């Protein structure tokens, strides 16, 4: 397979069950999804729908109860540097300088010191972080830490990048900047990305394609291709095409959140607070 | 004390200079910006720092000075108020004893013996305690294998091991080192285990994703992540090691500062008792200072960690 055609993620009939006996929870059921080489795909859904479980399966932290996930046809059996992972929490090693953090994967792969140093410098330069190569992570802001997290995940030249709500902890302004940086990096590296988020605007801005999941047990409810051209700009988020798509996704997610809350509503969970709201009202609350 | 500074332009007091290196640069501009401060404010903050340092020094002098004053007054007037100062040597007598002893070689031999014992016992405790702690912390089966035995042995104070150690080891030297080891071992072991347990799991997952094999995960992730806790164990372990060493030397030793102190009591050389005690205090202080220094050198990143260095 040529360099450009690598990074095909295929999930077939994935099911995940946590616990056993009466505590058994079906987190994910019958999920099929594909990320084409070089494609940016987001996975969105109500909280608790199992999107993170799917990412953990792709990363190799969790084994699916049924079905299989392959990368370039090879089943995933555990974590490995062929798949870069960016975590929601800051995951830089606090005891290593920024550059040593970026070098970590190359060091584990046995790359010579001078070579990994120059690779790390090049990557940090692309991300505009070269001035901070000798800083420790605790000296940096949250946005910078997360940018370095992305750079570190890219350093081993993985075929795919798996991102679990990487900007969830950042403020809105930083988040917008990070989305543009990520888009740039993604285009430069021509890498497949599986991106988990609960931010609908973010998923539309970044993705080629979006999978919407149902509430638990998580299944694929819809698969939506984002028709917006690239490169995407901040101005695009004001266009009718963007706004319409966001609204469509919001409706889809709201249906799921409502159905997830259905049992709570019936048992009087909401009226117990003395607020009289119909289903419409609950929709607005969400 | 200086009067409160008056600021003509802005009311905010200047940032103390020691906080300035902890810059928190923001995401967008990729260059650190120098902070510009009016020179008068800079001078003021330097003066503030000097004032605070001076106060620290002053309090330190008061702390140690009052100890000496109490000792001096007690022995000078031979105070008796339930505790009796009648037989206690004066600071001057102890000073004279120190001058006499420091001129002879025996005292240094005693110090050298104690240092050699504590370093041997402590080093062995590190070499066994830290790796075992990492394994116990990381693997449930290792934990289940070792922890029941550890929990039984741990409450036994090192001093209680003295008779057993004398029987167990061929020489009294070996038994003293063993007792020192016992004293240092459990704090180091248990703090290391705690260090592994309190590690953020995401670091382990990050290491695995970046291709670290199990042994390399230990060396490159689990060990450095646990280092701050390991150093806490070393500090506590060093303290207990000294307690154990002195007790062992008093009971079964030849040479050593503990032996020197006990021998002085037997020979009714009272100034030497106090000199022995002060020596133990100073050596203990040097040892814990050395560990703290090693911690600063080995873990430079902690200077920036939230909460900071303790």
From TrEMBL, chain A:
Keyword ATP-binding carried by entry: yes
Alphabetically ordered keywords of this record: ATP-binding, Nucleotide-binding, Transport
Keyword Transport in annotation: yes
CDD domains associated with the record: ABC_NrtD_SsuB_transporters (cd03293)
Coiled-coil regions listed in the entry: none
Residue ranges of every copy of the ABC transporter domain listed in the record: 9-240
Pfam families per record: ABC_tran
GO molecular function, one term: ATP binding
SUPFAM superfamilies: P-loop containing nucleoside triphosphate hydrolases
SMART domains for this protein: AAA (SM00382)
UniProt cross-references to PANTHER family, sorted A to Z: ALIPHATIC SULFONATES IMPORT ATP-BINDING PROTEIN SSUB, TAURINE IMPORT ATP-BINDING PROTEIN-RELATED
Protein name as annotated: ABC transporter ATP-binding protein
Biological source species: Camelimonas fluminis
Automatic annotation (TrEMBL), chain B:
Keywords of this entry: Cell membrane, Membrane, Transmembrane, Transmembrane helix, Transport
Keyword Membrane on entry: yes
Annotated localization: Cell membrane
Domain ABC transmembrane type-1: 111-286
Naturally occurring in which organism (per UniProt): Camelimonas fluminis
Protein name in the entry: ABC transporter permease
Stretches for region Disordered: 1-37
Membrane topology term: Multi-pass membrane protein
Domain of life: Bacteria
Transmembrane segments: 54-73, 118-137, 149-169, 175-196, 217-248, 268-291
InterPro entries cross-referenced by the UniProt entry: MetI-like (IPR000515), MetI-like_sf (IPR035906)
Record CDD domains: TM_PBP2
Organismal lineage: Bacteria, Pseudomonadati, Pseudomonadota, Alphaproteobacteria, Hyphomicrobiales
Pfam family, one: BPD_transp_1
Family: Belongs to the binding-protein-dependent transport system permease family.
């Amino acid at each position: 397979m040529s360099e450009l055609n690598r990074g095909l993620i295929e999930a077939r009939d994935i099911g995940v069950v946590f616990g056993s006996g009466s505590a058994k929870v079906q987190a994910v059921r019958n999920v099929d999804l594909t990320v084409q080489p070089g494609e940016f795909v987001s996975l969105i859904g109500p909280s608790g729908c199992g999107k993170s479980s799917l990412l953990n399966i792709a990363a190799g932290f969790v084994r699916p109860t049924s079905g299989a996930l392959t990368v370039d046809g090879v089943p995933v059996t555990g974590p490995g540097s062929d798949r870069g992972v960016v975590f929601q929490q800051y995951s830089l090693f606090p005891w290593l300088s920024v550059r040593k953090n970026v070098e970590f994967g190359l060091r584990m792969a046995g790359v010579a010191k001078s070579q990994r140093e120059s690779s790390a410098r090049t990557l940090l330069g692309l991300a505009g972080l070269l001035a901070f190569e000798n800083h420790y992570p605790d000296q940096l802001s949250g946005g910078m830490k997360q940018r370095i997290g992305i750079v570190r995940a890219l350093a081993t030249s993985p075929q795919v990048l798996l991102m679990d709500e990487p900007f969830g902890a950042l403020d809105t302004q930083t988040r917008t900047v990070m989305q543009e940086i990520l888009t740039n990096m993604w285009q430069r590296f021509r890498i497949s990305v599986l991106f988990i988020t609960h931010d609908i605007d973010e998923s539309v801005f970044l993705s080629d394609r979006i999978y919407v999941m149902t509430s638990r047990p998580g299944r694929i409810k819809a698969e939506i291709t984002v028709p917006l051209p690239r490169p995407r700009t901040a101005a695009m988020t004001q266009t009718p095409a963007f706004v319409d798509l966001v609204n469509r996704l919001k409706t889809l997610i709201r249906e799921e959140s409502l159905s997830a809350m259905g049992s709570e509503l019936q048992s009087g969970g909401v009226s117990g607070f003395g607020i009289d709201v119909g289903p419409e009202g609950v929709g607005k609350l969400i | 004390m200086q009067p409160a500074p008056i600021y003509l332009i802005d009311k905010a007091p200047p940032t103390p200079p020691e906080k300035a290196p902890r810059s928190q640069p923001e995401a967008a501009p990729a260059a650190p910006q120098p902070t510009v401060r009016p020179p008068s404010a800079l001078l003021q903050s330097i003066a503030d720092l000097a004032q605070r340092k001076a106060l620290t020094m002053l309090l330190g002098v008061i702390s140690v000075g009052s100890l000496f004053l109490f000792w001096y007054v007690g022995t000078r007037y031979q105070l008796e108020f339930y505790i009796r100062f009648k037989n206690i040597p004066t600071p001057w007598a102890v000073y004279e004893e120190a001058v006499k002893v420091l001129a002879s070689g025996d005292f240094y031999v005693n110090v050298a013996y104690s240092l050699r014992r504590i370093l041997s016992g402590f080093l062995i405790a590190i070499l066994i305690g830290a790796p075992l702690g990492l394994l116990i912390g990381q693997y449930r089966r290792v934990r289940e294998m070792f922890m029941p035995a550890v929990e039984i042995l741990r409450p036994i104070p090192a001093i209680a091991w003295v008779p057993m150690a004398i029987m167990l080891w061929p020489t009294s030297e070996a038994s003293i080192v063993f007792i020192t080891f016992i004293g240092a071992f459990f704090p180091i072991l248990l703090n290391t285990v705690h260090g592994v347990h309190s590690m953020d799991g995401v670091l382990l997952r990050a290491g695995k994703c970046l291709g670290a094999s199990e042994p390399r995960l230990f060396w490159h992730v689990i060990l450095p992540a646990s280092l701050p806790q390991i150093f806490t164990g070393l500090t506590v372990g060093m303290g207990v090691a000294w307690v154990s060493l002195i007790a062992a030397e008093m009971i079964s030793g030849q040479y050593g500062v503990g032996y020197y102190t006990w021998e002085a009591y037997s020979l009714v050389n009272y100034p030497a008792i106090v000199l022995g005690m002060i020596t133990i205090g100073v050596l203990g202080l040097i040892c814990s200072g050395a560990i703290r220094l090693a911690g600063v050198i080995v873990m430079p990143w902690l200077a920036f960690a939230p909460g900071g260095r303790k």
